[in-house]
Design brief:
By secondary structure, the chain is of the alpha+beta class. It has 12 helices and 15 strands. The protein has a single domain, classed as Cysteine proteinases (Cathepsin B, Chain A). A hairpin with a 2-residue loop joins strand 4 and strand 5. It is globular and about 60 Å long.
Length: 415
């Protein structure tokens, strides 16, 4: 009898183990189908410039999502208020679009005001500051399209903010933003500055502004909004009424001591900000869940060039052929960051969550073309859907309002 009981217990244990085994994922090679970037954005950009350049189709590795039941419908999610998704076009300015969206949501949370801010006003002055640093470092500082979330708050502190109605940042007849020719021209000028050792800051800044003005238009120094006249700084102070010092950046990297501040070591942190709080990975995830469950949204940044990041279903998971999700920890996260298989690609806005089939999923508002492949008539146009494992392994930094922190975490960080 005892032996029979032991056999039965062993059998039940084995069944239990199999029941808890995650689905085994399959890698497939996918041919590109409809692409919002190539078939809409670049098609209209080429028509605007009367260009004949053609796209080059390619086959790419992806996880087979066909056997998954997926929560890729925004209606399934509990959401904060946010403005509808808009496209960044053919630009590398996701950092401005995601952070601006995040601040719009937080302005509404604090004041009840629904405002659409100009991303391009921030982008304009960020290019000016990049050029200034290029001169100061004698050409060693990176001058490119990317940046980080705290660039937006840094620029706003110095230059203020304006509504989109006061500064669109592109010709009105241009269908999408396209910074490729503008960036090419600015880079060529700065390389000539470096080659000829012409480190005259005033001349360099003036020329960069001339180029920006040609493509983006000159930003306003004064404008009327809802019947009142503002400057960019008075609009920030008197209308938006947010304290930019309340927004903090958090990362989770094993290479730095936890519970301290350090530099987020990626190229887009071109000014080498050391204002990132570094916390253990379980705390990082605790912060994310506590914030979104309590009415706060989150600005997130990380890797979107993974086989588990599917631009057909617009869902992101960590496939088992990468790492079984139960083994995702600080070691797996740091290993991928250190060997550059996790890269700092893209900024997005986390606006909602749901618990679906036993997993936590996050609703991500996005400005890139990959979130638009379902077409403009689809409910998921402009969104991604991240499972918790993707967030844990591949999202490397976040920006939140400090009040969104759990009380014990806030105390430990001294906030």
């Amino acid at each position: 009898m005892k032996r029979i009981s032991l056999i039965l217990i062993s059998f039940l244990f084995l069944l239990s183990g199999y029941a808890q085994t995650p689905q085994k994922d399959v890698l497939i090679f996918r041919k590109p189908g409809f692409s919002y970037y190539w078939d809409v954005i670049m098609k209209q950009v080429k028509e605007y410039y009367k260009s004949q350049e053609q796209k080059q189709p390619r086959v790419y590795p992806a996880v087979d999502m066909s056997k998954y039941k997926l929560p890729n419908d925004p209606k399934l999610y509990k959401k904060v208020w946010f403005n509808p998704p808009i496209s960044q076009g053919n630009t590398g300015t996701c950092w401005a679009f995601s952070t601006t969206s995040f601040l719009e949501s937080d302005i509404y949370r604090q004041t009840g005001k629904k405002v659409k801010l100009s991303e391009m006003y921030t982008v304009y002055w960020e290019y000016v500051e990049k050029a200034r640093e290029f001169v100061r470092t004698r050409g060693k500082s990176l001058f490119d399209e990317g940046s980080e979330s705290n660039a937006v708050t840094r620029i706003m502190k110095k230059y203020g903010a304006v509504p989109e109605s006061a500064y669109l940042g592109r010709p009105k007849d241009m269908p999408f933003y396209d910074h490729a020719p503008m960036v090419k021209e600015m880079k060529a000028f700065l390389q000539s500055v470096k080659k000829n050792n012409m480190w005259n800051e005033q001349l360099v800044i003036s020329t960069i502004k001339d180029i920006l003005n040609k493509y983006m238009g000159q930003p306003p120094t004064q404008f009327v909004y809802k019947g009142k006249t503002y400057t960019p700084k008075s609009f920030l102070k008197d209308y938006l009424k947010i304290n930019l010092d309340d927004y903090i950046d958090i990362m989770s990297l094993k290479q730095f001591p936890y519970w301290t501040k350090d530099e987020y070591p990626v190229p887009d942190n071109w000014w080498h900000s050391k204002d990132y709080y570094n916390v253990p990975l379980d705390v990082f995830m605790k912060i994310v869940n506590h914030a979104i469950e309590n009415g706060y949204s989150i600005c997130i940044g990380g890797d979107v060039t993974e086989p588990g990041f599917d631009r057909q279903t617009q869902c992101a998971i960590v496939p088992s052929f990468d790492i079984p999700r139960q083994f995702i920890d600080e070691n797996a996260r740091q290993f991928r960051f250190s060997n550059h298989t996790t890269t700092d690609d893209h900024g997005m806005h986390l606006v909602g969550y749901t618990d679906f089939n036993g997993d936590r999923w996050y609703l991500i508002k996005d400005s890139s073309s990959g979130s638009r492949n379902a077409g403009e008539k689809s409910d998921r146009f402009g969104y991604y859907f991240f499972r918790w494992d993707y967030m844990k392994l591949k999202i490397m930094d976040i920006m939140i309002h400090k009040d969104a922190l759990p009380k014990d975490v806030r105390q430990k960080l001294g906030l």
